[in-house]
Amino acid sequence: MNHERKTMNREIGAIERRKERLDRGIKARTEGLYAIQSWREVLYLLAPRASLIIGLLVLPLVLPGLYWQRVLGLAGVYALLAISFDFLAERVGLVCIGGAFMIGVGGYISGGLNYYLKLPVFLTIPIGTFGGAILCTLLWLPCLPLRGIYFAVVTFMFPFLTTSIILAGNLFEGTEGLSPIAGFPSTWIGIYLILVILLTSIFGLRRLCGEDIGVVFAGIKDNDQAVYASGINVTRVKVYALYIASMIGCFAGAFVAHFSGFVGVSLFAVDFSIMPISACIMGGPGTLAGPALGALILAPLSELLRGFGQLRVVLYCFVLVGFILFKPEGLLNWATRKYHQIEHWVKV
Amino acid sequence: MEEQKKSILKVRNLSKSFGGVKALKEVSFDLLEGEVLGVIGPNGSGKTTLVNAITGFVKPETGEVFFKDMRITGLPPYKIADLGVARTFQVVRPFLSLRSFKNLIVPLWSPRARRFAGSRGGDRDAVAIDLLEEVGFERDAYVPYKSASALPLGYLKRLELARCLALRPEVIICDEVFSGLSMSEIASMVPLIERLRMRGVTLMMIEHRLRELFSVADKVIVLCFGEKLAEGRPEQVMNDEKVRSAYLGEEIRL
Amino acid sequence: MEVIVYGVANGMTFVLMAMGFSFVYGISRLPNFAHGALYVVTGFITWSFINSGGLPYWLSVVLSLLIVSLIGMAIYQFVMIRVRGMPISEIIVSFAIALAILEGLRLQGIGGFKGFIGPGYVLPRVIDGVVEMPWVTIDLQRIVIIGAGLLLLGIMWLFTHYHKIGLSLRAMAQHERAALMLGINSDRMANIALGIGSALAGLAAIVIMPLGNVNCESGYSVLTNAIAVCVIGGLGSWVGTVLSALILGLATTLMSAMGGTMWNNVLVFGLIILILILKPSGLFGRQKELEERV
User: Fold this and answer.
1) Residues of C in contact with A153 (CB under 8 A)
2) pLDDT in tens, C54-70
3) Which residues does chain C have within 8 Å of residue A228's beta carbon, measured at their own beta carbons?
4) Which of A8, A45, B130, C273 could serve as a FRET partner for C7 with CA atoms 20 to 30 Å apart?
5) Do A160 and C31 touch (CB under 8 A)?
């Protein structure tokens, strides 16, 4: 009885005020061609994107020292994984928790080519990226017909399986791994390479999702039976999406191999599968730039906490759970909303 | 003089069971080119299963389906749609997260639509808006630009038909297009069906609303508990004893 | 011959490990990926009671089972309840909690807290000693495992078939909407299910851990084994769970005897992936396959 009365009061209380959200005037003025009418409007549109690009490109120059540049490189890797996860999960509806598998495949192919065949970096990275993507897509192909949760579990298992095969069969030097692997001619090249790829991925994927095929992706996420009924081979389209995402993931793996000079089963660590999810949820699922930013925040944070051992993982987990429970829209979506809209309480 | 119409869709001895329930028992019929065939029957008689089996969403256990003398039994649903047999869903399945006209981009992107695209193929947005206008979305009221989740059921049913039309199909199988609509909405749907028929599209309509169906259908088949009870012109079928007892029950003579 | 007996015992450990997970997922469709963590936590709590607290064995066991049940229910009440219905989020959230717990137990150096690492943590066996059977020598603890497994299976079967709450839980598993209409409170039931599931995980820990020692890695392997049993056996049938556990137990024992323990993991992971791809409803499952595949 008491419980009922409490809810009633809460409802009555809620009826008195509600939140109203209005688009800012400047947002309305920037729709379509009218955006060019003055500098203020143009700036409004360009500012977020420009600040992202300029910010990222300038970042390496302001970092204090080699150590932090290496952290930035690693953060870039996590960011790429986060983008790949976000694209698959939010734009296509494929929840793939196998980030570590992509890193491992890309890393082993690229590092292996360098270690065994002494191929130079500018060859191993492309081969690792495209070849690795083909391998990942082929191996995950039979899993594609599975529904959401089963697909997620299966992809999650792949890195573990590969690790146990490598260790049990003592392949590729087993526990010791392949080392040393050639690095980049200079750290600057490495850093800027990954930042450029990062930016290209974000804007490229956004462009892709704006095209007609992006609408098909959204359709698959929404309701794949209707897509089948529209005469489209859904599995084939999912393969395209998976290939693109694997390219990004395997590039990240190839990059890590050369950036750290070492290839081993640690590339398949569960870290690489979980961290991108945290970064994605925290940064803003669906925006592609948000997860990247999330990774760029979480990775350095975890570096700072490296001294405390496993506290890092505990941290990712708390962030993940906290955001899923309390702010599932993520930081970037929240910021975008604030940028485009004003809200205030209104009496009903 | 009756012209000899060709059968565009031949269904032979289709059977399907789910667990212990036999949903379809040896159903056979022909769908003639250009005609409107109605499929009626009490609830649970297997009508939607029939559609699913023909269009590939469910694999039949025995039996064959032929489309223009091509064997399509057991093909995946997208292949069957690609060949020219489109279907609507009984419970409408629009892409709720997309805008109405964007909903049509998906079928327009399919290989079949691209084959029939013609010179305007590149601008799918424009083709989509035109298609919506054809099925009755008012362009001036900006209805095509609304999100699909904001549309009432009548529009969603038309959207389903538009989705089929985007594929330039030869056969459309409509699963209960009239159900859930108000009288005025149905009144505006019937001319749409007529228009489709005049364009040469063959229609197979699963329906519960007999009056509206009989005003458009040439022929009707009756399903009951998975079996085909009767086939023929609407008046013939409704006078059939078996059909009456299936719908209305046995008459008790005191 | 030894292989078979040890294989059966091993199979029973799989049964025990999987029961908690399979119960919760089968009943409330909640993939409780924190299962492994709860297993390990029970071990540590029991150890702490016995060694640091000086409590007698049986009291420690009972207390820690209660505590673990409460932890499980708390996880549901405060966290899982908010992501109910979104299976991916449920997995991610429960796995994140598991990771936090397991890695947290490994922490060292925060405020002098030395993590739970090291061979010193051992749980006492229920019965010490060894039994000499005609073909093989087997330790009593393993007999206890087999016995406990069978007993628990029996209890759970009776519970879900005859007790009011058990029947409600089964109703919820079969058709949630219908159960709701009959007045069965879905949240409370899920709470209870998770509490029972955690207790089952704890019981498994009490009985299995004495064979080795209490460590954090077992948290992951327990979870993997539980998933393997459920995936291979399929959901919705106790028979399937038991059979697949026995198969897995025998297979891994065989593998260890032949090739060494390294390949065990390959076997388990490989089987999970293979079955998921080929027959997602499991070998004995009665789930509608249409639900899992397009």
Assistant:
1) 91, 227, 231, 272, 276
2) 777 788 888 888 999 99
3) 294
4) C273
5) no
